[in-house]
């Protein structure tokens, strides 16, 4: 099936030679050109992201104490058990991406979501065995990443080719952030009234009753569900055509390219610098005269700003023909790190610092999949995005904050650590100015993939 009718002033991402839309109003009005199944798939993505592992991670804050009390474990040991799946599970995304690229989104999403619901509910049955709980949490989280995160980016990319950035920000990033904010008090209320075991049963039930039907009835790709005259999904039971291989670079060539390495470096360091401040905010700002309540409020400001950053990045990237659209957000990163030094007791300085860093974290989560699509096309998109997200999560979100805290403990303060993080922000700013340009849209006659005007420029010009 061909993409939705394109606006004459629009071009697919990765087509830098085409003119940009004249106004934001035209860009938004073009959304009406997408068919009904695109919006059905969008609803499925939203409902799935509401109950995805990134949204449910906010419940860990309220689960640690009751689980530790129930099993007579220390809070540190319990928190470590819950954190292991959060760090390790994203590495199933490359496998999930391969399955999605080969078999299609729905074939992965439907059975995966059902298993995700069952595994989540099964946590309620675990005994006082740390290994057993860790394995079950890891299986549940991995299934969630496979059936939801491994699917939604590909679906948004294919259904909304002219508004990918906005789709990533609204349907995926902002939905996850807002759902996490809503689930946080709800989970605390449920744990206080019903206990942590019943809470896990309720979460598993919600996945089965909300996310699973959405994936089953609404989740289709254009390549696996051709539209009929009324722009509706083919009735159940009718055979669907084999999943079509899309244009773009194969996985091996993409991972060997300088463009991918360059992109991963920029995104990982940007996320690592901002998250090092966020995850160490209590000890960092507590020593500067801020109370725990004030720091918690600043973290909330950062989360709200991240949603704004996601949306703003989506709009800016969709309307730009160059990856340098990410540069203003790296400027926010540098300014935020400079403001950290000025946050020494004044509430507004603290809020501004965290808001600037929040904008960066939101923009980074939208920019990653957008650049993957622009540089490498849709052929192995889910696999490349899975590997990219896994590296950014492990190194930027998992490793950077730990190294920052360790350095602060060794040096007896945060001064040297903050200087190093600020230098990292400056490096990201400089590197973002030299991100390789998008490839041109000429097609290779033998591989049906986009190739640049000069073959070496797509992946090697830095």
Automatic annotation (TrEMBL):
UniProt KW Transferase keyword: no
Membrane-topology descriptor: Multi-pass membrane protein
Pfam families (alphabetical): MFS_1
Region (Disordered): 442-462
UniProt xrefs under Gene3D superfamilies: MFS general substrate transporter like domains
Subcellular location: Cell membrane
Domain Major facilitator superfamily (MFS) profile: 41-440
Keywords, sorted A to Z: Membrane, Transmembrane, Transmembrane helix
Residue ranges of the TM segments: 41-68, 80-100, 107-127, 133-153, 165-186, 198-219, 259-277, 297-318, 325-343, 349-375, 387-408, 414-435
Protein's name according to its UniProt entry: MFS family permease
Source organism phylogeny: Bacteria, Bacillati, Actinomycetota, Actinomycetes, Kitasatosporales
């Amino acid at each position: 099936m061909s993409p939705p009718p394109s606006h004459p002033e629009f071009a697919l991402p990765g087509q830098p030679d085409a003119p940009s839309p004249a106004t934001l109003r035209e860009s938004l009005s073009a959304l009406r050109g997408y068919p009904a199944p695109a919006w059905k798939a969008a609803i499925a993505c939203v409902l799935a992201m509401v109950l995805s592992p990134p949204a449910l991670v906010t419940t860990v804050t309220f689960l640690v104490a009751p689980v530790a009390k129930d099993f007579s474990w220390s809070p540190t040991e319990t928190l470590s058990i819950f954190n292991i799946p959060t760090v390790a599970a994203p590495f199933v995304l490359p496998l999930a991406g391969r399955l999605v690229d080969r078999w299609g989104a729905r074939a992965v999403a439907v059975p995966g979501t059902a298993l995700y619901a069952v595994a989540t509910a099964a946590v309620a049955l675990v005994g006082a065995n740390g290994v057993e709980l860790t394995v079950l949490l890891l299986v549940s989280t991995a299934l969630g990443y496979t059936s939801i995160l491994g699917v939604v980016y590909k679906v948004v990319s294919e259904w909304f080719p002219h508004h990918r950035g906005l789709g990533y920000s609204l349907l995926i990033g902002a939905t996850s952030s807002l759902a996490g904010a809503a689930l946080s008090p709800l989970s605390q209320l449920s744990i206080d009234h019903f206990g942590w075991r019943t809470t896990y049963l309720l979460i598993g039930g919600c996945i089965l009753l909300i996310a699973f039907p959405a994936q089953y009835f609404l989740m289709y790709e254009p390549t696996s569900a051709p539209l009929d005259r009324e722009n509706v999904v083919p009735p159940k039971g009718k055979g669907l055509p084999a999943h079509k291989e899309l244009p773009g670079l194969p996985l091996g060539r993409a991972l060997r390219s300088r463009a991918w390495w360059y992109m991963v470096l920029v995104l990982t360091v940007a996320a690592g610098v901002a998250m090092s401040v966020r995850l160490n905010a209590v000890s960092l700002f507590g020593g500067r005269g801020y109370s725990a309540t004030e720091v918690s409020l600043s973290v909330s400001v950062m989360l709200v700003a991240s949603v704004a950053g996601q949306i703003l990045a989506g709009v800016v990237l969709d309307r730009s023909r160059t990856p340098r659209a990410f540069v203003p957000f790296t400027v926010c990163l540098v300014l935020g790190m400079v403001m950290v030094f000025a946050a020494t007791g004044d509430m507004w300085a603290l809020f501004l610092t965290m808001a600037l860093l929040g904008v960066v974290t939101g923009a980074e989560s939208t920019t990653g999949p957008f650049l993957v699509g622009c540089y490498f096309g849709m052929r192995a998109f889910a696999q490349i995005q899975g590997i990219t997200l896994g590296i950014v999560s492990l190194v930027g979100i998992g490793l950077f904050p730990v190294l920052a805290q360790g350095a602060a403990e060794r040096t007896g303060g945060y001064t040297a650590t903050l200087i190093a993080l600020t230098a990292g922000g400056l490096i990201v700013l400089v590197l973002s100015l030299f991100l390789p340009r998008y490839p041109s849209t000429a097609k290779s006659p033998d591989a049906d993939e986009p190739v640049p005007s000069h073959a070496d420029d797509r992946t090697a010009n830095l």
